[in-house]
Amino acid sequence: MPEQLKGKVALVAGATRGAGRGIAVELGAAGATVYVTGRSTRAGRSEYDRPETIEDTADLVTEAGGHGIAVPTDHLDPEQVRSLVDRVEDEQGRLDVLVNDVWGGEKLFAWDTPLWEHDLDNGLRLLRLAVETHAITSHHALPLLLRTPGGLVVEMTDGTAEYNRENYRVSFFYDLAKASVLRMAYALAHELEPRGATAVALTPGWLRSEMMLDNFGVREDNWRDALTRVPHFAISETPRYVGRAVAALAADPDVARWNGESLSSGGLARVYGFTDLDGSRPDAWRYLVEVQDPDKPADTTGYR
């Protein structure tokens, strides 16, 4: 969608890697100016201790056709977030799209571990990173976003409201974090609608993030080699797919029709007609319900 978002300003909070990076790049590909934030920079890494940096993301945004601006920010620190928004206001005078993608909890939860056995400090830290950061960021950024009619807030989570309502997600803390973000989008929608803005929750499917690829010992160019060990990984998608979902929402003059909704990359692809980088349209959440969860053999026919 070249130039469809030219003149628009976006803030992607948590854009170092994964979905945040994919979203930032696709907003850039549509012509937007994109502020990308996180704690991993070329000067130092977060506790993830990974090589991806916000400066790299900003460069990718610019290479895609937009204007990427990296701003190191700890979104648990209200003063840092306030300073970030002040900078956006000083430099651009507007904010059209806010994407709350801060997560940071990948190393803090234990699969299928009950609350009373889970490390409490890790669990509470996860909730702060996954929930409190979003509230702090919205508190400071929304006054600027509301100055221009038609603003969009995207709360990034894992799982649709329907799927998460019916399924236990990983652990008490993980489940609570993802449900909280879904509810934040709903609450924001109620508060933003009369003020001319829209809020939605959005989930990717099985994301081929940098960390996921590393966990499976593959790269993006040979990711299918992992299917011998994890056959259902065949439904996975690149971070750019959910990025195209956000860009499509941001460019939609009738985006208010989605206000308060829980959306997925695969579902929006059917509406807006975009594809993943390989030309396919993976629909992971339908696949999980109809194929993976019932323990059927892996077969993506009709699902991508």
TrEMBL record:
<dbReference type="InterPro" id="IPR036291">
    <property type="entry name" value="NAD(P)-bd_dom_sf"/>
</dbReference>
<dbReference type="Pfam" id="PF13561">
    <property type="entry name" value="adh_short_C2"/>
</dbReference>
<dbReference type="InterPro" id="IPR002347">
    <property type="entry name" value="SDR_fam"/>
</dbReference>
<protein>
    <submittedName>
        <fullName>Short-chain dehydrogenase</fullName>
    </submittedName>
</protein>
